[in-house]
Amino acid sequence: MESNFVDYVKIYCRSGKGGRGSMHLRHVKYQSNGGPDGGDGGRGGSIILRGNHNYWTLLHLKYQRHVFAEHGGNGGRDKCHGTDGKDQYIDVPCGTVVYDAETGKYVCDITYDGQEVVLLKGGRGGLGNFQFRTSTNQAPRYAQPGEPMQEMTIIMELKLLADVGLVGFPNAGKSTLLSSLSSARPKIANYPFTTLEPSLGIVGYHDQKSFVMADIPGIIEGASEGKGLGLRFLRHIERNSLLLFMVPGDTDDIKKEYEILLNELKQFNPEMLDKHRVLAITKCDLLDDELIEMLKETLPHDLPVIFISSVTGKGLPELKDILWKELNSESNKLQEITSEDTLVHRDKDMSRFSEELLAEGADVEIEFIDDAEVEDVEELDDFEYE
């Protein structure tokens, strides 16, 4: 069964071309030398991205491969102005990042509801010969063509907006923790890669406060080389201000697994190592107090560490206290201000771009559509009499 969670689409966009100006000379009864009266062409429609909080995936755009804006109408006689082309709006969920599919260059980022970004601007309409009349050229026999359209194939990626991101190997208890702390109900089973798509949950805190937690599919050693599900889901925790690393308590070497996870994040984006981190040792209902004290001596000392059990609820209140404290620490707030744009405005790595497109089921080659409706530019000596 195909999932309804779509966080990656490729779309060909084309704005409207401007209408051409009219070259017309007024010639009616009793007014043989009426002069020029050709109107201006209309403006072409633009392609505009708009943030919409009613969407949470890009599913509605998955099968919309082409988005075209209307062309501007041509000018007419009697100084009639051509109709303006209708703008085409593309509604996307908040957290959508847009890249140029040809070069991988960052284009724009939609982060809040109602935000509008003009992706492709429509061409301006050409001026009619009425605009070129002068005292020395009272009957100009030329008009401007409209500006051409713009086209681009774009890649849209959804990066979920959350406060805390869960990072861990498969079967580390991430989905169980999310279901214990929030009303989210991700799939939970006793086999690897149970989670195949990211999940969001709102975690309640004291005095009606809350924060958002994001669960992503587990990563394994070598994920940066494409093993397992790869690293493509890590973009969903790129925006998170706090990372919660989760390692099961029955692991042979907890510190080593933590370092492997850190290395995989470094391979994906080195700037993610600058985020605040918390380490949670899960499944502690399988450990006794003596073993827990022994494990504390071998754990990293450069970040908060807590032992929890999502099944029995052990350590969960203390975990929420630690997460809330780290989220609202002054150093974390200052870090968000200084690094707000650096994570978002990175270009895509084109060396792995083709493999990423294939993994998402998209076409590798860039597709462009020839405009069959393109009309020839009006000749300068082509004019009409009424």
Structure description:
The protein has 386 residues and is an alpha/beta fold. The protein folds into two domains: 8-159 and 365-385, Distorted Sandwich (Spo0b-associated Gtp-binding Protein, Chain: A), CATH 2.70.210.12; 164-343, Rossmann fold. It contains six helices and 17 strands. A six-stranded mixed beta sheet has the order 12-13-11-14-15-16, with helices on both faces. Strands 5-1-10-7-8 form a five-stranded mixed beta sheet, with no helix packed on it. A three-stranded mixed beta sheet has the order 3-2-17, with no helix packed on it. β14 (242-248), α2 (254-268) and β15 form a beta-alpha-beta unit. The longest helix has 15 residues, at 254-268. The radius of gyration is 29 Å and the shape is rod-shaped. The protein starts with 7 loop residues before the first strand and ends with a strand.
Task: Give me a quick take on this structure.
The protein has 386 residues and is of the alpha/beta class. It has six helices and 17 strands. Strands 12-13-11-14-15-16 form a six-stranded mixed sheet, sandwiched between helices.
The total of helices stands at: 6
Distance between the termini: 65 Å
Please indicate the percent range of residues in DSSP E strands (runs of 2 or more): 15-25%
- How would a crystallographer describe the biggest sheet? 6 strands, mixed
CATH superfamily of the largest domain: P-loop containing nucleotide triphosphate hydrolases
CATH architecture grouping of the largest domain: 3-Layer(aba) Sandwich
Contiguous low-pLDDT stretches (5 residues minimum) are 337-344, 362-386
Backbone structural class: alpha/beta
Task: Give a count of the beta strands, DSSP E runs of length 2 or more.
Answer: 17
**How do the SSEs run, as a string of H and E?**
EEEEEEEEEEEHEEEHEHEHHHE
User: What general form does the structure show?
Assistant: rod-shaped
Mean pLDDT: 79
Strand order of the largest sheet: 12-13-11-14-15-16
Task: Return the CATH class of the largest domain.
Answer: Alpha Beta
Radius of gyration: 29 Å
CATH topology of the largest domain: Rossmann fold
Helix content: 10-25%
Summed up, the domain count is: 2
Domain OBG-type G: 162-328
Subunit structure: Monomer.
Family: Belongs to the TRAFAC class OBG-HflX-like GTPase superfamily. OBG GTPase family.
Binding site for GTP: 168-175, 193-197, 215-218, 282-285, 309-311
